[in-house]
Design a protein that fits this description.
With about 140 residues, the chain is α/β, with parallel strands linked by helices. The protein is built from six helices and five strands. It has a single domain, classed as 5'-nuclease (Rossmann fold, 3-Layer(aba) Sandwich), CATH 3.40.50. The longest helix is centred in the middle third of the chain and has 14 residues.
């Protein structure tokens, strides 16, 4: 069976950095496990970084911790250059960059807590699921 190709929405990254208890944290802990491939673009990583660094002082993570986490994500990810912008397609331009990465990488899934924000992306062959739904699909949790 082919490994699922995914793009992770920023809200999942932020959730994982805020708490070690949820499905988003578990998803990040599965990076490098060979159960799926994560895909990123430069704009998406910059968005992750911006959102993550707004957590400094609100979590135990410092700038270096966040940089290390993002560096690890980049080392495990398939990196893509975006040549065609699907904008505007969704309501939020930040969601458009998630969609652009997913379409460019020919992903199977967008992982997000805001499924309603990604309506009509099925036309691109994408499924939109929460971290918990995805972890169940790949057999990490029951």
């Amino acid at each position: 069976m082919k490994k699922p190709e995914i793009v992770i929405d920023t809200n999942v990254i932020v959730s994982a950095l805020r708490s070690q208890r949820g499905a988003s944290y578990r998803l990040l802990m599965e990076l490098g496990s060979n159960k799926f491939d994560i895909n990123v673009s430069v704009p998406l990583i910059l968005e992750y970084e911006s959102a993550a660094k707004r957590l400094i002082g609100k979590t135990k993570l410092n700038k270096r911790d966040i940089d290390d986490i993002l560096d690890y994500m980049c080392s495990e990810a398939k990196r893509w250059k975006i040549f065609y912008l699907w904008r505007p397609y969704l309501k939020d331009p930040k969601d458009d960059m998630v969609l652009e990465a997913a379409v460019t990488a020919k992903c199977d899934f967008i992982i997000t807590y805001n499924k309603d924000d990604f309506q009509n992306v099925g036309t691109f062959g994408l499924r939109v699921v929460t971290p918990k739904e995805f972890l169940k699909l790949i057999g990490v949790i029951k």
